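Retro notes (design track)

What went well: tokenization of the new backbones is finally stable.
What didn't: we kept losing track of which sequence belonged to which structure.
Fix going forward: every design gets posted as structure first, then sequence, in one message. First example under the new rule, 351 residues:
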């Protein structure tokens, strides 16, 4: 069906196509059984105090305002991350702000955290309980001067509805956001988050989403400070605002964050470094260029316990999760893997 519709969809502006996808998911007509595949029990994994039916999740950025997460679970995702959610409703940056780089199997976006705000999202989550593992990604409004306070506000308002909370310090489309990677700023932010977690008895895992463009010298302090303040995991990584030299599509110079196949290997290298330097003490969610079972397998052996995709679904449609699960099951059987957690980081250890 997607192969038939793709030429029509790709004739639409990418953001119009995305809005159409959200509206279609709200109709929620296709039964979950359509996206199941044989042998899925092999994909179960226990991590972040939860059992995930498979390690393939949807990254933040698709369901920005928590409108269709239960429909997305039906597509076969093992978990869904909504957001980025900010305290106040936010339109984001001027349009056009999303670009397909078809020749590179990539996207560039400069959306700027467009979402309905934490109050509206909270109401939706109260009305519609999640039917699977739900992550909530939070960030600051563009106009906020003290961005630390926005993270704290969202964390307090929304933690009870999440299975984990992601602190997004990595979007290239919000000015100065990536300064939180710096040691002093990172320490200051995590100290505040730790205080709020203790005062409000917040037991949900907190993860940090990082940039793929970080200086490798920053990896050590990001790990050390994360462990110091009981951060459970790192999401590697967000979109890149560099790494354009090998792209061929004419839209490659558009400002914004690059996602998709061009950052697959960059993501894998960072996953290995974080896994090795943290000695496996931080749960890693690997993101970047995932569009096949082989990609998922490579990220897991690099050190990721879970993976996420988004751009891959833009190019391959909603059936991508079923195809990934089927291919991954075949790879695990060929490799005689009976427990997916046994191979996490096996490639990093040997590299």
């Amino acid at each position: 069906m997607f192969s038939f519709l793709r030429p029509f969809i790709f004739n639409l502006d990418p953001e119009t196509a995305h809005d159409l996808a959200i509206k279609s998911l709200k109709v929620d007509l296709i039964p979950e059984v359509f996206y199941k595949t044989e042998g899925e029990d092999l994909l179960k994994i226990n991590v972040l105090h939860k059992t995930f039916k498979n390690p393939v999740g949807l990254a933040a950025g698709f369901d920005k305002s928590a409108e269709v997460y239960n429909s997305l679970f039906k597509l076969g995702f093992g978990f869904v991350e909504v957001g980025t959610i900010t305290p106040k409703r936010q339109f984001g940056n001027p349009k056009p702000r999303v670009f397909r780089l078809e020749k590179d199997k990539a996207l560039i976006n400069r959306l700027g955290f467009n979402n309905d705000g934490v109050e509206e999202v909270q109401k939706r989550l109260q009305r519609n309980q999640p039917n699977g593992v739900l992550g909530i990604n939070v960030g600051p409004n563009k106009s906020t001067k003290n961005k630390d306070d926005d993270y704290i506000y969202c964390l307090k308002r929304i933690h009870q509805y999440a299975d984990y909370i992601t602190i997004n310090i990595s979007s290239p489309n919000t000015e100065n956001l990536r300064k939180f990677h710096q040691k002093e700023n990172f320490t200051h932010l995590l100290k505040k988050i730790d205080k709020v977690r203790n005062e409000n008895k917040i037991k949900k895992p907190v993860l940090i989403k990082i940039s793929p463009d970080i200086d490798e010298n920053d990896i050590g302090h990001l790990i050390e400070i994360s462990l110091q303040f009981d951060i459970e995991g790192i999401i590697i990584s967000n979109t890149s605002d560099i790494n354009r030299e090998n792209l061929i599509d004419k839209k490659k110079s558009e400002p914004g964050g690059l996602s998709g196949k061009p950052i697959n290997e960059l993501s894998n290298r960072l996953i290995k470094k974080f896994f090795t330097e943290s000695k496996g003490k931080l749960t890693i969610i690997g993101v970047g260029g995932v569009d096949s079972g082989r990609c998922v397998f490579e990220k897991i052996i690099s050190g990721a316990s879970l993976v996420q995709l988004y751009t891959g679904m833009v190019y391959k449609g909603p059936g991508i999760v079923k195809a990934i699960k089927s291919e991954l099951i075949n790879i695990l059987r060929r490799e005689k893997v009976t427990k997916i957690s046994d191979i996490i980081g096996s490639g990093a250890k040997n590299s």
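Added context from the reviewer: The chain has a mean pLDDT of 93.
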